[in-house]
């Protein structure tokens, strides 16, 4: 019985321990129809962003988000989880979600708008650090790639109008 209790304490400690996200790299592809410039960069493991909008971001602005994992000794990343979401609906919703918690935390470090439409202009984020509590609990420690495709229309259909593609590589550790 003592062995069982010790094992249970070890398991609980491992699951409750603060997870750490270390940013490795970023890549951005933006559509000049929507953005004058979009820069995403890492300094001292903090994320920084400068965005210059050419047009308003309106209702119907969506994102397709892929979480990818690279297994040990593998060359390629494999998709673990994909999700489509309406960006404006999440930002203005009272419902809590992981994406909304990210947005709220990021907004403490920048000048994001809390509603759509988002007006033409310059938006920024400075020195944002992703806390381990902001990761899905089902993600095991490892090397991850997050890809976010922002668009209007239907994802990868004829109506698809790509606005922005963000790629962020990171390591998740316990």
From TrEMBL:
Residues 1-17 form the signal peptide. Keywords: Signal. The keyword Nucleus does not apply. InterPro entries: DUF1091. This is SCP domain-containing protein.
């Amino acid at each position: 019985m003592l062995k069982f209790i010790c094992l249970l304490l070890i398991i609980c400690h491992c699951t409750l321990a603060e997870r750490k996200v270390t940013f490795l790299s970023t890549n951005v592809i933006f559509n000049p129809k929507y953005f004058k410039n979009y820069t995403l960069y890492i300094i001292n493991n903090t994320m920084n962003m400068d965005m210059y909008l050419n047009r308003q971001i309106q209702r119907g602005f969506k994102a397709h988000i892929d979480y990818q994992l690279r297994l040990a000794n593998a060359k390629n990343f494999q998709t673990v989880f994909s999700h489509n979401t309406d960006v404006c609906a999440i930002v203005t919703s009272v419902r809590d979600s992981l994406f909304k918690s990210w947005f709220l935390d990021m907004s403490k470090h920048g000048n994001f708008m809390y509603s759509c439409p988002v007006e033409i202009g310059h938006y920024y984020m400075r020195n944002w650090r992703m806390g381990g509590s902001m990761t899905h609990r089902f993600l095991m420690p490892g090397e991850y790639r997050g890809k976010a495709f922002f668009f209007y229309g239907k994802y990868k259909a004829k109506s698809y109008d790509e606005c922005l593609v963000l790629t962020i590589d990171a390591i998740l550790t316990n």
